[in-house]
Specification:
binds Phenylacetyl coenzyme A, 2 strands, 13 helices
Length: 350
C-alpha cells in the first residue's frame, strides 16, 4: 500500500487545527487502510495503520521471535549427544535456522517502531510470552525427531497462512521461514522413522517421545476459538487467516496418516475419522495444563528463561564490541569526509 504514508504529524494535533478536522483526517486514513486490507494489499511500514493493529502485530511477531530463539534450547540439548556425525550436522543446521528465524522476526517487529532491546527486555522480564511448547523437556534422542515432526509440523500448518498476512514484512519473512520449517519437519520425520523401524528399544523410545509431545503440540495453536481473545480482530485485519481450532484440526488431519506410516500410535483413544465432517475427531485437550504453562508453571519455564537471560548477559561484550566498532567506523568516516571536503575546497581556491 502506498497511497497514504504515516507522515501525518504536520496536521494531526498541530495548533490551530480543529478537532473535527483531525477526526476527519483520521477517518480518511482509516478508510484507506480498511480498503487496502479488503483488497488484500500489503500494509507496509511507512503506511498509516491503526495503533491497535500495530500493537497486535508487535505482540504476535515478538512472541513468535521469542519462540524461535527459546525454541533453540530443547534441541540444542542433544547436539553433543547426537547418535552420528550426520545427525549432529543436521541438528546443528536446524538449530541455527531457528536463530535466523528469530532475527528475521525481530527485524520485522522493528519495522513497527519497536527495538530489539526493548523486546528482549520484555521477554527476560516475563512481560512477553513465547510458545508454550518450549517449556517441555527433551528427555531422549527421539524427542529431537518428535519435535521436528510434530512441533515443526504444527508450526508450518500455522505459518503457511501467515505468508498471506496483511503486514508485508511479516508475510515476507514467513515465506523463507516456511521453506526451512519444511526441511525441519522432514528431518524429524525421517529420524523418527529410523527409530521406529529400528530395535524394539528404539521403537519404544520413538513411541514414548510421540506420547509426550502430541498433546502439547495441539496446544501450540492457542486456546479454543471461544476463549481466544485476539482471533476475531486479527482475522478482520487479515493478520490471521484461520482460527486456532481450524488450524488445529488441519494439523490433526495431516498427522494421523503420517503416524500410521511411521508405525507409531497417537496417544488419544478418541481419535477417529468422522465421515460426516470429513475430519478426524479427537479427544479433549487439557486446557488447564496449557494455562498453567503460560503462567510459568510448565516443567521447564524456569530453566528456559534463566538460560536465555544468562546467554544475553554472556553476549554483552559482543554487543559492546560491535557498538564500539560501529562508533569507530562512524568517526573514521566523518574524518575522511571532512578531509575530502577540505581538500576539494583547497583545490577550488587554488
Ligand atoms: N503459547 O487470542 P489468542 C516455532 C496466548 S513455532 C503461549 O488465541 P493469538 C518454530 C496469546 O499470546 C511457535 N502463549 O492469541 C520452532 C494470548 O496472550 P496475550 C511460535 C499462547 O495471538 C520449532 C492468549 O494466549 N509460533 O517457534 C499460545 O490470536 C522448533 C490468547 O490467545 C508463533 O508464534 C501458545 N501456544 O493466537 C522453533 C506463530 N497460544 O498475547 C524452534 C505466530 C496463545 O494476549 C524449534 N503466532 N497464546 O498475552 C500465532 O499464530 C498466534 O499468535 C497464535 C495465538 C496462534 C500462537
Amino acid at each position: 500500500m502506498t497511497a497514504v504514508t504515516a507522515g501525518t504529524a504536520e496536521t494531526t494535533g498541530a495548533p490551530g487545527v480543529s478537532d473535527a478536522a483531525v477526526a476527519a483526517e483520521q477517518a480518511a486514513y482509516e478508510a484507506v487502510f480498511d480498503a487496502a486490507v479488503a483488497a488484500d494489499e500489503r500494509i507496509e511500514p511507512r503506511d498509516w495503520m491503526p495503533e491497535a493493529y500495530r500493537a497486535s502485530l508487535v505482540r504476535q511477531i515478538a512472541q513468535h521471535a521469542h519462540s524461535e530463539i527459546i525454541g533453540m534450547q530443547p534441541e540444542a540439548n542433544w547436539i553433543t549427544r547426537a547418535p552420528s556425525l550426520r545427525r549432529k550436522a543436521i541438528l546443528m543446521a536446524k538449530v541455527q535456522d531457528e536463530a535466523g528465524h528469530g532475527l528475521y522476526l525481530y527485524s520485522a517487529a522493528e519495522t513497527l517502531g519497536t527495538s530489539r532491546d526493548e523486546l528482549l527486555d520484555k521477554l527476560h522480564s516475563g512481560r512477553q510470552k513465547y510458545s508454550s511448547i518450549f517449556n517441555y523437556p527433551t528427555l531422549t534422542w527421539a524427542d529431537v525427531g518428535a519435535i521436528g515432526w510434530l512441533v515443526d509440523g504444527a508450526a508450518i500448518t500455522n505459518q503457511v497462512p501467515l505468508c498471506r498476512c496483511s503486514y508485508g514484512p511479516y508475510a515476507r519473512a514467513m515465506v523463507r521461514v516456511c521453506k526451512e520449517e519444511s526441511f525441519h519437519q522432514r528431518q524429524g520425520y525421517e529420524a523418527l522413522l529410523a527409530l521406529s523401524r529400528g530395535t524394539e528399544a528404539q521403537h519404544a523410545m520413538a513411541q514414548d517421545a510421540v506420547d509426550r509431545w502430541w498433546w502439547p503440540s495441539l496446544m501450540m495453536f492457542g486456546p479454543p476459538d471461544d476463549e481466544s481473545t485476539h482471533t476475531a480482530q486479527a482475522m478482520a485485519w487479515k493478520i490471521k487467516r484461520h482460527s486456532n481450532d481450524e488450524l488445529r484440526q488441519r494439523f490433526v488431519d495431516i498427522a494421523v496418516p503420517q503416524a500410521e506410516a511411521l508405525g507409531l500410535t497417537l496417544p488419544d483413544p478418541d481419535l477417529r475419522w468422522n465421515e460426516e465432517r470429513g475430519h478426524y475427531d479427537f479427544g479433549a485437550i487439557d486446557w488447564a495444563e496449557f494455562w498453567d504453562v503460560l503462567k510459568g508453571n510448565g516443567p521447564c519455564n524456569e530453566e528456559r528463561l534463566s538460560r536465555r537471560r544468562q546467554a544475553h548477559e554472556d553476549g554483552a561484550w559482543v554487543r559492546e564490541a560491535a557498538a564500539a566498532h560501529a562508533e569507530k567506523h562512524r568517526v573514521d568516516k566523518h574524518h575522511a569526509e571532512q578531509h575530502q571536503h577540505t581538500g576539494k575546497h583547497g583545490e577550488a581556491q587554488a
